Each structure stands twice: as C-alpha cells, then as structure tokens.
Amino acid sequence: MTNLLTPFEYDYMLKAILVSGLIGGVCAFLSCFIxxxxxxxxxxxxxxxxxPGVSLAWLLGLPFSLGAFVAGILAAVTMGWIKKKSGLRxxxxxxxVFTSWFALGLLLLSLYPSNLNLKTIIxxxxxxxxxxxxxxxxxxxxxxxxVLAVKWRDLLLYCFDEAHARALGxxxxxxxxLLLALLSAxxxxxxxxxxxxxxxxxxxxxxATAYLLTDCFGKMLIIATLTGAACGVIGAYASYxxxxxxxxxxxxxxxxxFLAALVFAPKHGLLATRRLRRLATRTA
Amino acid sequence: xxxxxxxxxxxxxxxxxxxxxVGTVCAVFSCYLxxxxxxxxxxxxxxxxxxxxxxAYMLGLPLAVGAFAAGLLCALxxxxxxxxxxxxxxxxxGIVFTGMFALGLVLFTKVQTDAHLNHILFGNILGIEREDMxxxxxxxxxxxxxxxxxxxxxxxxxxxxxxxxxIGLNxxxxxxLLLALLSSxxxxxxxxxxxxxxxxxxxxxxCTARLLTDRFDRMLLIATAxxxxxxxxxxxxxxxxNAATGACIVLAQAAMFAGxxxxxxxxxxxxxxxx
Amino acid sequence: xxxxxxxxxxxVAYPNGHTALRDASFQLRSxxxxxxxxxxxxxxxTLFKTLMGFVKPVSGSIRIAGGxxxxxxxxxxxxxxxxxxxxxxxxxxxVWDVVMMGRYGHMNFLRIANAEDKRMVNESLARxxxxxxxxxxxxxxxxxxxxxVFLARALAQNGQIILLDEPFTGVDVTTExxxxxxLRSLRDEGRIILxxxxxxxxxxxxxxxxxLVNRTxxxxxxxxxxxxxxxxxxxxxxxxxxxHFESSTIQDHDGKTVKLLTDDERPLVFGKDxxxxxxxxxxxxxxxxxxxxxxxx
Lengths: 284, 275, 297
Fold this sequence. Notes:
The structure holds three protein chains of three kinds. Chain A is mainly α. Chain A has helices at 2-9, 11-37, 40-49, 51-60, 64-86, 90-111, 118-123, 131-160, 162-167, 172-194, 199-213, 217-242, 246-264, 270-283.
C-alpha cells in the first residue's frame, strides 16, 4: 500500500499532479465551447502557432507565456485576414498559417540553440516545471476561469447562434476575439503539461466526452471539468509508475474515458443507439 | 560563398532529388485535399502514424508498413465514430489523432528504439539512409501513379459525391482510396519533413495554386511547380543557414503562398471589392 | 425495359436511431413530372438518398425500371440535380468540365472523352442554352444559369430518372419558365422527373403527379386527386400560413370561397372547385386580362 503513495513523497510529483489537474480542468471547461463551436482545428493550430513566440520570448528574456500569447493572437489574426482576402476554405487557411508559424518556431530553435529544449515544447515536461512557470500557469488559469465564469452565457450564445447574438446587440467580434484569446492562453498553459502536439486533446476530448453524456450545457460544463481535472491528476500520477511521458499518459487516459462514454453513454452511446435502431426496425 | 557548393556533396544531391519527388506527390495530393476540405484529416493522420511506427519497430516490420496501417486505422475510426454519434467530425479527428499520438509517445518512452524520435517528428532528409530512401521512392511513385490515373474520378468525388454515385462510380472505394493515398503520401514524406510538418506540404501548395487559377488541371501543375521549387529552395537554404531542413522547406512553401496572395490582391483589387 | 419507379413499404432509419421514413410507398410511370412535396425534415432528402442508393432501407424495397437501385446505378439511370447550396461554387471547374462529369460513367477507366462524349456535352449545353458560357468558372454564373448547368449534366448523363432538389430557389422567372419548358420536353421523351419542392404555387403549373410526404408517403397520384386542401393540410400541419379572404375582396365567379396556402414562396390559391392555378402562364395571363376587362366594364 505504501507503494501507491510514493509519488506523493516527491515534491516534483506533487506539483506535477496538482498543476496537471488544474490545467486539465481549465482546458476542459473551455473545451465545451470549442467542441460546440467546431473549433477543434483552431485549438490545434493555436497550440502549434505559439511556438515561435516561446522561442522569441526566450531570446529576448521575456516571460514565455507573454511571447506565446502574442504569437497565438497574431496567428489567429493572420488566418482571419487571409481567409477574408483569399476566399479559400477556412480549414485550408488554418493549415497553411499554423504550419508556417510552427516552422518559423522550429527554424528559430535550430538557429539559436537555447536551453529551451525542443522536446519540452513538443511534448511538455511537467515533471521539471519551475516555480516561475507554475506562477505563470496559475495566473493564466485564474484569469481564464474568471473570464469564463463571468462571460460563459454570452459565449454559449455566440457558439450556438452567432446571428442571434448579434441581433441581441452583443458584440460578437469581441466574443470571437475573447474566445481566441482564451484559447491561446489555455494553449500556452497546457503546453507545459502535454506539449504542443497534444494540447488539442485537452481542449477537445473532455468536452466531447461530456457532450455524449448529457444534453444540458450546465451539466456538460461540470462533467467536462471534472473529467479533465481527474484525467490530469490520475494521468500524472500513473506516469510515475509507467515511467512514460506524462503528457502521453494524460491524453491516453482522456481518450480511454471518451471511448468508454462512446460505448456506454445512456442516451447517445453506441449501445443505446443500437437499441433504438433495432426498435425502429422491429416496429417498421 | 560558392552557390554551387551544396551540389558537390552527394547527400545534398540526394536530398534535393528526394525532396523534389516528395514535393511533387504532396502537391498533387494537396489539390484534392483542400478542395475536399480534408486539411485537418491530413494533420490527424500524420500524427496518428506514430504508434504504428513504434509497433512496427517492436515487431520488426518495415516502419512504413506500420505507419500506413496506423494512418488508415485513424481515418477509419474517425469515419466510424462520426457516423455513429452526434459529435462533429473535426472534434472526432482531434480526439482520435491525439489519442493515437499520445499512445505512440507512451509506447516510445517504454520501448528503446534506434529510430530517432526527432527524425520521425521533424524529418532527416540530409541523413536519409539508403533503405529509407527506397521506401520513400516506392511510396511516392506508387501514390503518384494511382492519383494521376484516377485523377478525374477523384476530382469528381471531391466536387460532387452524389453525382459520382449516381453515374455508377464506387464512391466508398474512392473515399477509402483517397484515405489510403493520404496515408501513403504521409509515409513518403515522413523522411523529408517529418510527421509534424507534413500537413504543410499537404495543404500549402494546393492553396497557392488555387489563388492563381480557377481550373483544376492548371491547379495541379502550379501546385507541383511551386512545391518542387519550395522544396529545393528549402533544402538549399538549410545548407547555408545550417538550420532545420523541414522547417526551411515549409517556410519556403509559406513564402510561395504569400507571394501568390500578394499577386492576387495586386492584380484584382476591383474583383476583391466586388465580392 | 419499361421505365418505372416503384417504392413499396420503404422504411429508413439512420445509424443514430432516427427513423426518417416509415412505410413509404408510391409509383411513377414513364413520362411523368412528379412533385415531391413536404415540409423541411419530412424525409424528402432521405427519399432522394434512398433512390440514389446512399442509404439502404431497413425494410421495404425500391424498384427502378424493374431492377434494384444498384442495377439502376450501373445503368446510370438516375441523374441528380443538387440544391444550389449543396454545391461548392468556388471549386475550380468550368461549365464544360461540370457537364462532362455527366459522361464519366460512360467513359473508360482513365475517363478520356471521345467524340461521342463531346457531342453529348455540346448538345446538352445547347439544349439548356448555356453554350456561350462553357468556359466560365461555375461560381461566375447567375442562380438560374447554375441550375441549367447541372440540368445539362443530367442530360449529358442521359439519365432517365431525373431528381431535382428545390430547382426554383434563387431562380428568376424567365429561367423558371425555361426550366419548366425543358422539363416538359424531357417528360415527352418518356423520362421520369421527380422534383422536390416546398414552393407550392408552382406545382400545379408543371407537375402532373404529386407525392406528399411527412415521415411517410401520405398520398401519391395525379395532381387533381392528390393536390387538395385536405391533403396539404395533412402534409404541412400548422406550418402553412392560411389567409381567409373577406368576400369583398373576391370576385363572384370564384364562388366567394378562396383560401390561400403558402409556406414561404409562391402562394397556392384554392377556390371552390380546387386550386386556382393554370397549366401554363399564357392561359393565366389571358384569364387575368379577361377579368380586368370584366372589372372595367
């Protein structure tokens, strides 16, 4: 039994577990909006697009989250501009912009080798997170939670029916920007835990899991946040025993929870819909 | 500085040739991918090949085979989950590919392989080994030939599935063919730019060409030309800058796109205002 | 092979458990223009998808020219003209390319066009009056021209059963008439034309057969028998706006019982003896003129 408690004896494990849980919860809260708005690709894109910001911030000696945030917003603005000017499909434009941004980040990293490890950015390294970085994560999470708590009804309306929100006199351009800013901010925070490639899992999977389990948005928020936080905590804890990549463990766990919901969800799961279909065939 | 210096090294000549070939395949495919609206699918499959590579290594199979199988598995499970739940397709893709990538990562940290993770992720075209090069050549050539033979059917499939079906084409087959080709293209380009930047090769040339023409056949030609040029420029530049080759290629592609944007906007300011 | 389209007791359920059509049956014979009428979500598009073999019924069967849907697909019997919104108009293809797509099913493995294919494409373009636009990119066309291009594609395919999805949305009156004239000539060649529409007003003008759907086929048969106020109320429930007119607004010869049914487009007007639409516009124009004269007197 004492064996199971060993991770808690290490200071760095305790920190990692707590921070993962926090980030998991914040990302999961946001993921409800992202999945409903259909912005998964945007989440993936922004999490890659922040990389040049991280390397530039390191070169200039600024806090990395500032650089990352600015790079994310710049990428989003570029996407919007190109889409308006070119008439190309949105997904293609996003693809072009985020890969260019990411490549720029890689180029900078390869030109100016730094103590910023490429692997840390791509896969995260929560076990080695420094105290100033924890402070940055805490500030980002605090602000994100605060903004979401105040504005979630507006954001929900925006995701559900943009035209209606505009008709009500709500500034949808502001909401659009707000959601992008939140996305960039949480992507920056999640970068620490799971790395650029897996951030999108934190920003999508818990929301989708909750969406399978409930039809009520309020409940969806609660379920997603709890799942996200629990997966963060348990994944980080399990990674100690598996001795594998922490980010990988967290995301694999989230995917497993999603698969379980996919099969067993009471109303929208595979088993339930199969039952419905059989019913339809029989009564026909 | 001698501008011809890179050509004195056999590895640079090989790298230029391989990247030009990979650039061609990706460019041709990108025209279909962006018109079908499958850019995210390219991103998803390219990440999802990772567990396949690790498992293939464990079993002693060629890495390309494992990667191809994992790519197809990702595409098929996305299609299956999407059709049987109410979750949006882009969300499903996000979930599946990150799940598979994470699995690959965990497996990778558990299994000591001599395949360098960095080479898989970011490509290693300057140090490409003979065996990998042959795999790349075979995968590229096979993909290119199939696409060019079936280019009209695939175009129709991207444009109007209902009609393709009505005139007796096997649309399910075309769908899986396109997915299989996507997987094999990704496998082919893995060595050149790595699985993280492949999606740039699979999206940018098509977008560049789409800006410059509104005919499909011309689009194929322009995409190929811009992609090959970008690949060569990228490899060349990386030699002088001593920088990551994959990143240089992708940035050269982005420069082509930016040039096309500029050209289009300068040429038709009125048409822009009209729309 | 005699051309016919027959659905018997067709039930369609989607994998998510939703039953879109239940026990739907109807029959169409060669040389028919049939209207498929129903509200949004009544199963019109599901019926189209079933006819094209996109979805398989969980029970019941569809026979096209005596064969299955699969056999009809092999013979390229069914042609489909999509809704304007379904098409990606930014796709880099020209009018000629789109019409040539109608020939793909008839071509060899590599889809190389021969002289016959080119002749068919030219002929189809001429028939819809789009020859001069053949090199335009499809996004550069007007609403009516877009429709005609896709009709030309159905002609190039030589489809014997033509499915049209909302052909008159976003189309000007001249084009609407041109399309109706074309559909009539296609009917006279013995083809079956099935038009999905919620534009009730135009139905009596060019259709000779009506299939009313609301999650099932409520009624199917000749226009005069099926397109009645009762049936339409059943098909549309409370969705239709109904206007009852004061007697002062109505001329005596209509028997003073006029009811106007509309969802959002051309209204359908019922008098005592059925709907007050006319088989073609010239006839209606003559009648209107006559009435104006009467009032003048």
